[in-house]
Backbone:
């Protein structure tokens, strides 16, 4: 009798385990086993962050989902995003413009701005440049401002070399260019002859080969090329500040050259395609770690969680 009871108990427990496993399996299939594609384009500055998140997502979360991340530039990316059958996300190193919002409204697209990290505009010079490692904010402005008329390094400071300054930066497709033009130069014309490039790797190469060069781009590109370039410490009025993850904060010492970076989500695509929404939620939940790994200052957990909670509500 005792053996019979034990046998019955074993059968019942086995049935419970099988039932529980089956329920768990069904839950995983509907909640996490996704397939399809997610298309991301836009900012070259934000590219390293989103590419890292995409790679981690495909490896660790959804091996049957293909997340394609490109880097046409913020403005060029918005043109692709704000079109019939456009991309799912547009990375941006600036806020969406009023005319871009109007285009979205005309197309009937629901667009959600997602703030993902903080970036610092970093001035970079050639490794052999040992005179301009520290500049004031006004000196940076004068170097890039057409009306300032500073052509030689000695025009910035008399003890600097009497050599022509060669200036570099990203072209008009990039939000970094627009931020620099609008927020740092106060929408005044850039110096004539500035070499503007689409590809950030080209900028790195050009500055690394030109002793008299100075250029600008996001901090992450400097971090990944410290062996080729030197970052300029900027004096905003209280002494030189080195761009770093510690100083690049909204209220930090590098704040005048700090800006938020974003990805914009097509909400209609997110509601229609579970993998798009799932990647969006994953990106926000993991943005802080990926940011630090790719040269961005992370947002607070509370700020990221609030945005992730909103996305959860779209399910």
Residues:
């Amino acid at each position: 009798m005792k053996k019979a009871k034990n046998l019955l108990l074993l059968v019942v427990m086995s049935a419970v385990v099988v039932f529980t496993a089956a329920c768990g399996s069904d839950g995983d299939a509907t909640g996490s086993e996704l397939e399809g594609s997610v298309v991301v384009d836009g900012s070259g500055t934000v590219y390293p962050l989103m590419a890292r998140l995409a790679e981690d997502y495909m490896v660790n979360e959804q091996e049957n989902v293909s997340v394609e991340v490109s880097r046409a530039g913020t403005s060029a990316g918005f043109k692709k995003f704000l079109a019939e059958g456009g991309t799912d996300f547009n990375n941006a190193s600036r806020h969406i413009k009023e005319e871009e919002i109007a285009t979205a409204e005309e197309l009937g697209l629901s667009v959600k701005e997602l703030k993902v990290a903080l970036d610092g505009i970093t001035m970079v010079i050639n490794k052999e440049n040992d005179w301009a490692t520290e500049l004031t904010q006004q000196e940076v402005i004068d170097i890039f401002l057409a009306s300032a008329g500073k052509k030689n390094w000695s025009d910035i400071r008399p003890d600097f070399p009497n050599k022509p300054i060669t200036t570099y930066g990203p072209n008009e497709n990039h939000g970094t260019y627009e931020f620099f033009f609008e927020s740092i130069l106060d929408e005044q014309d850039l110096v004539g002859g500035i070499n503007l490039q689409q590809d950030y790797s080209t900028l790195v190469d050009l500055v690394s080969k030109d002793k008299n060069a100075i250029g600008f781009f996001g901090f992450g590109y400097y971090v990944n090329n410290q062996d080729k370039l030197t970052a300029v410490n900027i004096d905003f009025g209280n002494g030189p500040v080195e761009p770093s993850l510690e100083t690049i904060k909204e209220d930090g010492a590098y704040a005048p050259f700090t800006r938020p970076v974003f990805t914009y989500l097509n909400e209609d695509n997110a509601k229609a395609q579970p993998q798009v929404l799932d990647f969006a939620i994953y990106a926000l939940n993991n943005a802080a770690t990926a940011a630090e790994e790719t040269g961005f200052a992370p947002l607070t957990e509370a700020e990221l969680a609030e945005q992730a909670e909103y996305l959860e509500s779209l399910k």
